[in-house]
Amino acid sequence: MVASVGSQELNNLSDNSEELRLYLNSPLATRDTNSLKIWETLKEVYPYLYQIARDYLSRVAISIPAERLFSKANSTATE
């Protein structure tokens, strides 16, 4: 895989690895902090990780299969 990427992409991979290493060695935030606000302050330090965090933290967590199951169960239940 490494042989198939260009030199620019290889530099990006090493930059991203360094960014991840720095982030993993940074102190943890407390549970009561707003993750999106924290990432807004960190976006200059960790631009690659900021994009990933923004994509995943902005999505609403739902369970579609469970909702479908309850809906189907309601349709088949009788009094």
Automatic annotation (TrEMBL):
Organism, as annotated: Acromyrmex echinatior (Panamanian leafcutter ant)
Lineage of producing organism: Eukaryota, Metazoa, Ecdysozoa, Arthropoda, Hexapoda
Name recorded for this polypeptide: HAT C-terminal dimerisation domain-containing protein
Pfam families: Dimer_Tnp_hAT (PF05699)
All residue ranges annotated as the HAT C-terminal dimerisation domain in the record: 19-74
SUPFAM superfamilies assigned: Ribonuclease H-like (SSF53098)
Gene Ontology molecular function terms on file: protein dimerization activity
